[in-house]
Design a protein that fits this description.
The chain has helices spanning 9-14, 47-61, 72-83, 91-96, 100-128, 133-141, 143-180, 193-210, 220-239, 244-250, 259-265, 280-288, 291-300, 306-335, 353-384, 392-412, 416-443, 451-480; strands spanning 33-34, 37-38. By secondary structure, it is mainly α.
Length: 481
């Protein structure tokens, strides 16, 4: 990329090249500047020199370099928390509809593909100097790129909020009934999940969302991650406490009246194909999406480099892979074919303080997480509208309208599997597969030295497109059926 016309000679001479693991800072390569232009020797010997120069110039136009202060360990914690979410509650259901072997294959594949997509995203950030996803899209593809990334990240955040409020809708009634000493069959308007989710939204979440700054709520992320770790421990413990045979005796389904049928249902299955199998891959993809948080975490990393952030990514994804697999396998081995799309809903809190504690902890965690995600979506909307000054009336109106829409969706969407399915085949697919590979291919389209990497990125893009072409029609077909 040529230098801008009118670039001052002194600015060129004072320009420093950022450190990189693979690039030498040999001053002999930067020898002459004539008439405001860099001598051809500046980029003659290696193609990567030109890419590095381009990267530095783009940094001047994209983001100002600010040193990070977060340690590697804390960055791993932050990224792990960004990955972890409500998707963990749907993985046992996904396993029940794929079988153990097929689920493990899908989980390993999505984990490795997610790590590769993070690698592509970090390369794009390094080449352009952009530390904000929307800015990166605008830098590479202009306004359409910014709009597509905004749409994908917003849909992902809205999907996460829907899944969190769905947990409130499903779990809070059972918790209240237990605290009131009522049976699970007790029904009244004030323990209806639809009423409770509206009450929580406008009684707790709305006041938090109306605040101008929600920075302090970031501390709840640690509590949220702790709740999920606690949930995993309880799932493992309950596997050895709950008997599948006892579940069969308590079931009312006529198919379980036959002991041989019940014995068959209490045996693990390794490969399954049914109408619900189509939701498995979107659910797993939804559980691994953290891409909107990668660049902010990267920008805060102390002594940051691409290799160091890639290490953070690898550790975080491996830790989440272990947590996800253990939650899914122990949840499935407890309830087998009767596992629900929200695993927590399988456990009954009647006379079980441990389950009640987990339920309340998860409910509180998701309630406090919704405003953080909502703040991000609303800020993106205002950024898109180029609204810089704070307007109280607009702030309140947008907050209220968005919360009303989200509540209507939560009330009328029948199950969490629909949320995981839709968000998984749309925004999760865009953020994991299509966007990182498209950005990488666009940035490196003139770099002949990266032909092999471009081939892999092209295959990655093709995989994402194929995933969309196959999964979206299947999800729609399943709705119709």
């Amino acid at each position: 990329m040529p230098f801008k016309a009118g670039l001052e000679l002194t600015e060129l001479q004072n320009m420093t090249v950022p450190e990189d693991d693979n690039i030498s800072n040999d001053s002999n390569d930067f020898t002459e500047v004539e008439n405001g232009q860099i001598n051809s020797k500046f980029i003659s010997d290696r193609e990567s020199r030109r890419s590095l120069t381009n990267s530095h110039l783009e940094k001047k136009k994209c983001d100002e370099y600010i040193p990070g202060t977060t340690s590697l360990g804390m960055s791993v914690f932050n990224l792990s928390n960004a990955i972890m979410g409500s998707g963990i509650l749907g993985l046992a259901f996904a396993l029940a509809n794929t079988g153990i072997l097929l689920f493990l294959l899908l989980l390993v594949s999505v984990t490795l593909l997610s790590i590769y997509s993070i690698y592509l995203l970090l390369v794009c950030s390094k080449e352009t100097g952009c530390m904000v996803y929307e800015k990166l899209g605008e830098q590479v593809f202009g306004t359409p790129g910014k709009m597509i990334i905004f749409g994908s990240t917003s849909l992902q955040n809205v999907g996460a909020m829907l899944s969190y409020l769905f947990i409130v809708k499903n779990e809070l009634p059972s918790a209240i009934k237990f605290l009131m000493g009522k049976e699970e069959s007790f029904s009244a308007w004030y323990v209806d999940g639809r009423f409770l989710v509206v009450a929580v939204t406008f009684g707790i979440i709305l006041p938090l969302c109306l605040l101008k700054n929600l920075g302090y709520l970031g501390y709840t992320s640690g509590f949220s991650l702790s709740c999920m770790v606690f949930f995993l421990i309880v799932v493992i413990y309950k596997k050895f406490q709950i008997s599948c045979y006892e579940l069969g005796l308590n079931a009312t389904s006529p198919i379980l009246s036959n002991s041989s049928e019940h014995e068959h249902m209490c045996k693990p299955k390794y490969v399954i194909f049914n109408s619900k199998t189509v939701y498995a891959l979107p659910t797993i993809a939804f559980a691994f999406v953290c891409h909107p948080s990668v660049l902010p975490i990267y920008s805060e990393l102390k002594d940051r480099s691409q290799k160091k952030m890639q290490l953070v990514s690898n550790i975080s994804f491996f830790a989440m892979f272990v947590m996800y697999f253990m939650t899914a396998i122990f949840g499935y081995m407890t309830f087998y074919d009767s596992v629900q799309s929200d695993l927590l809903h399988n456990y009954h809190s009647k006379d079980d303080i441990l389950i009640l504690t987990v339920r309340l902890a998860v409910i509180v965690a998701v309630i406090l997480t919704v405003p953080v995600l909502f703040f991000t979506v609303r800020s993106s909307l205002f950024e898109l509208a180029k609204k810089k000054k704070f307007d109280l009336c607009c702030h309140v109106l947008v907050t209220f309208v968005l919360l009303v829409i989200i509540n209507l969706l939560v009330i009328f969407i029948p199950t969490m599997e629909d949320i995981f399915g839709v968000v998984g085949v749309t925004s999760a697919n865009m953020l994991i597969f299509i966007l990182p590979s498209s950005l990488y291919l666009k940035i490196t389209h003139q770099d002949g030295a990266k032909l092999t990497q471009r081939i892999w990125a092209s295959l990655f893009l093709a995989l994402g497109i194929m995933f969309s072409l196959v999964s979206i029609p299947l999800v729609i077909y399943n709705w119709v059926q």
